[in-house]
Backbone:
C-alpha cells in the first residue's frame, strides 16, 4: 500500500513495478478539491462503495469524479490496471438526520481529514477523540455520532447498543484504491505479461467486491438485530442533479458548456433513442478474401500468439513490421461484435523496413485496385487493434485490400498522455512509409486509397495527409474520420495544407460521445468528433452528425469496460451509420449524393442520416 504525497508515491513506484495506490479519489481529483462540494464527494463515495451503493445496484457505473481520477493517474505517470473497492468509513448515530438542517451543530467524532472536511461543509462539528474514548463519549452524550474507519468489523456491540433506534451512515468517506503500474514498470513487461497482470488485478478487484458485498449484507442483518437503520448521508442532501451538473462542479466548468458538450448523456429516458438495428448478422466480408495486411510500429515480442506478439514500447531501434494476417470467419458473429476467431500470420512471414513493407503491400496491386487503410484509436492493445480491424473489414465488406496501421498505444484508459506520445513516435515511420509509396507511384503504379481513422487515430491520419501533400504529392480517394479526437484548429490547418490530396473529407460526429468528453476534460477544448453545438461545419468537408442515431443512455463508466461505449464507435456498431460509411467506401460519392438529410448552419451544410 502506498499513501502520502504524490511525490512519495512516484518515488516508491520507481522501485516497485506495481502497487495498490490507496487514495480518496486521488484527493478529489487533485487541484479541483476546493471546487467540489461536499454533496458531490458523498455521491461519489456512495457509488464507489464496493460497486453497490446502499439500496441501489450500481453495476459498475462511474461518477464524474472517478472519471477524473482515472485520467489523473496518467498525469502522474501511472497506469490503472483495476480499481480496488474499499468500504467507506461509517458513522454510528443515535439520531436519524432526515435533511441537511438536521446536521447543523451535530457533534461527530471523525477518524480522517476527508470526513472531517465533508462533515464540516455540511454543518456538523467534527470532534477529535481517541478510539478508547468514543463509546463513553457517545453514551454520555458528549458527542452525537461517531465515525469508524470501515464497515463494522469485530465486536462493535457497544456502538450498536448506543445507536439503537438511530442509524449507521455508510458513506462518511471512502478509500478508493487503484492497482497501478508506473511507466518504468510497464516498460519492463511484454504485452502478454501486462495483460496477465491486468487480469490478475481485475480478478483481485472482483474478489474484494464479493467480500465487501458479503460484509455489507452481514451489516444489514446485524444492524436490524440492534434496531439500527442503515442509511446514507447523500440521501439527506438536495438532489444531486444531472451528470452535466456534477461534471461542471467537479471541474469548475460552466454547466451550460458541459450540458451542450455532452447532450443527453446520462439523462436520456428509456425509449428516448432513435430506432437502431440491433444484432444484425455481419456481412462476413460478402465474398472478400479472409485476410488483411498489418503494418505496425510496435515492438516485436516474438509471442507465439499473433494477438500478443506486438507490444507498446517506443524503441527507436524497432523497424516497421508488416505481414499478411489470415483469419477464420465466425459465421455466428453479429454485426458490431468483437472478432474472436482464429488468426495467423501468413506463411510468407514478416517483412521489416518501410521500403520492403510498401513493396509487400502495394507492388502487386492491379491498376486502380482499391486499398483501405484502417487506423485505430486510443486505448488499443495490438490485440484490440487486430480484432477491430477484422470486425470492420467483415462488417463493411470492404472491397480490395485492407491495411491496418497499428501504432504503439498501451491499451490503458489512464494511458491517454502516453498514447499521445505514441502518435508522435509513430510519425517518422509513417513519413518514411509514405515516401516509399510515392516512389512506387512515380514508377507508374496507380492506387485508389481510402483512409478510415478512429478517435485518436485521427491525429495519425492528419500526419499522413500532411506527408501526402508534401512534394511530390500523392492523392487518395477519400478520408473518413470517425469520432476524431482532433482539435479544430489543427484539423483546419491540415485541411488548408492538404485539401487537394482528397476530393472527399468526411467527419462522423456525435454530441453524446463519452470518450470525447473525457478528452475535453484533459485537453480543455473540444474535438471535432463532437456534434451538436460543437459540430464542425466548413466548406468542402462532409460532416455527418449521428447524434440522433446514437444517443443511448450511456453512463460514463461504460467507457472503461471491455465493451466500448457505443457513443464513440457509431460507424462500427450502429447499423445505419455503418451502412453510410460502407456506401462511401464503395461508391466514392460525397454526402450530398448519398441521400443523407441536409441541414444548414450559418449558411453552410452538414448532414444527418435517416433513422
Residues:
Amino acid at each position: 500500500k502506498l499513501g502520502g504525497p504524490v511525490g512519495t508515491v512516484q518515488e516508491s513506484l520507481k522501485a516497485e513495478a506495481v502497487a495498490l495506490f490507496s487514495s480518496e479519489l486521488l484527493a478529489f481529483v487533485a487541484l479541483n478539491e476546493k471546487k467540489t462540494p461536499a454533496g458531490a464527494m458523498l455521491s461519489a463515495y456512495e457509488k464507489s462503495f464496493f460497486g453497490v451503493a446502499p439500496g441501489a445496484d450500481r453495476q459498475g457505473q462511474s461518477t464524474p469524479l472517478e472519471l477524473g481520477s482515472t485520467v489523473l493517474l496518467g498525469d502522474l505517470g501511472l497506469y490503472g490496471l483495476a480499481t480496488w473497492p474499499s468500504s467507506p468509513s461509517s458513522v454510528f448515530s443515535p439520531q436519524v438526520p432526515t435533511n441537511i438542517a438536521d446536521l447543523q451543530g451535530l457533534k461527530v467524532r471523525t477518524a480522517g481529514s476527508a470526513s472531517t472536511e465533508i462533515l464540516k461543509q455540511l454543518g456538523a462539528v467534527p470532534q477529535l477523540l481517541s478510539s478508547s474514548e468514543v463509546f463513553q463519549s457517545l453514551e454520555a452524550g458528549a458527542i452525537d455520532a461517531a465515525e469508524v474507519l470501515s464497515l463494522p468489523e469485530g465486536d462493535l456491540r457497544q456502538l450498536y447498543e448506543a445507536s439503537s433506534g438511530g442509524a449507521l451512515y455508510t458513506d462518511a468517506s471512502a478509500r478508493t484504491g487503484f492497482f497501478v503500474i508506473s511507466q518504468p514498470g510497464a516498460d519492463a513487461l511484454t504485452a502478454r505479461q501486462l495483460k496477465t497482470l491486468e487480469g490478475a488485478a481485475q480478478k483481485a478487484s472482483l474478489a474484494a467486491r464479493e467480500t465487501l458485498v458479503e460484509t455489507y449484507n452481514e451489516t444489514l442483518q446485524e444492524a436490524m438485530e440492534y434496531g439500527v437503520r442503515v442509511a446514507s448521508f447523500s440521501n439527506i442532501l438536495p438532489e444531486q442533479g444531472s451528470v452535466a451538473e456534477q461534471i461542471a462542479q467537479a471541474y469548475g466548468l460552466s454547466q451550460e458548456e458541459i450540458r451542450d458538450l455532452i447532450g443527453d448523456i446520462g439523462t436520456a429516458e428509456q425509449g428516448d433513442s432513435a430506432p437502431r438495428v440491433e444484432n444484425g448478422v455481419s456481412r462476413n466480408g460478402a465474398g472478400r478474401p479472409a485476410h488483411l495486411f498489418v503494418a505496425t510500429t510496435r515492438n516485436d515480442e516474438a509471442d507465439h500468439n499473433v494477438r500478443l506478439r506486438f507490444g507498446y514500447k517506443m524503441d527507436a531501434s524497432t523497424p516497421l513490421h508488416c505481414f499478411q494476417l489470415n483469419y477464420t470467419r465466425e459465421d455466428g458473429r453479429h454485426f458490431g461484435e468483437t472478432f474472436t476467431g482464429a488468426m495467423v500470420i501468413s506463411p510468407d512471414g514478416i517483412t521489416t523496413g518501410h521500403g520492403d513493407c510498401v513493396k509487400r503491400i502495394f507492388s502487386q496491386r492491379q491498376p486502380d485496385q482499391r486499398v483501405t487503410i484502417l487506423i485505430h484509436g486510443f486505448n488499443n492493445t495490438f490485440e484490440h487493434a487486430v480484432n477491430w480491424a477484422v470486425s470492420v473489414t467483415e462488417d463493411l465488406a470492404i472491397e480490395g485490400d485492407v491495411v491496418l496501421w497499428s501504432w504503439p498505444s498501451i491499451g490503458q484508459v489512464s494511458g491517454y498522455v502516453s498514447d499521445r506520445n505514441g502518435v508522435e513516435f509513430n510519425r517518422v515511420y509513417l513519413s518514411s512509409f509514405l515516401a516509399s509509396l510515392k516512389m512506387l507511384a512515380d514508377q507508374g503504379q496507380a492506387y485508389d486509397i481510402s483512409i478510415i481513422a478512429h478517435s485518436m487515430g485521427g491525429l495519425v491520419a492528419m500526419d499522413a495527409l500532411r506527408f501526402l501533400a508534401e512534394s511530390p504529392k500523392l492523392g487518395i480517394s477519400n478520408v473518413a474520420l470517425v469520432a476524431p479526437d482532433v482539435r479544430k484548429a489543427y484539423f483546419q490547418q491540415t485541411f488548408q495544407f492538404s485539401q487537394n490530396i482528397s476530393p472527399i473529407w468526411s467527419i462522423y460526429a456525435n454530441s453524446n460521445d463519452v470518450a470525447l468528453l473525457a478528452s475535453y476534460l484533459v485537453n480543455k477544448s473540444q474535438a471535432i468528433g463532437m456534434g451538436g453545438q460543437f459540430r464542425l461545419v466548413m466548406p468542402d468537408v462532409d460532416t455527418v452528425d449521428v447524434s440522433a442515431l446514437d444517443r443511448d443512455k450511456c453512463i460514463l463508466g461504460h467507457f472503461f469496460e471491455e465493451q466500448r461505449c457505443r457513443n464513440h464507435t457509431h460507424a462500427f456498431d450502429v447499423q445505419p451509420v455503418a451502412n453510410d460509411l460502407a456506401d462511401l467506401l464503395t461508391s466514392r460519392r460525397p454526402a450530398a449524393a448519398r441521400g443523407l438529410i441536409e441541414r444548414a448552419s450559418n449558411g453552410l451544410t452538414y448532414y444527418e442520416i435517416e433513422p
Observations:
- The chain has a mean pLDDT of 82.
- DSSP finds 19 helices and 21 strands in the chain.
- The two ends are 51 Å apart (CA to CA).
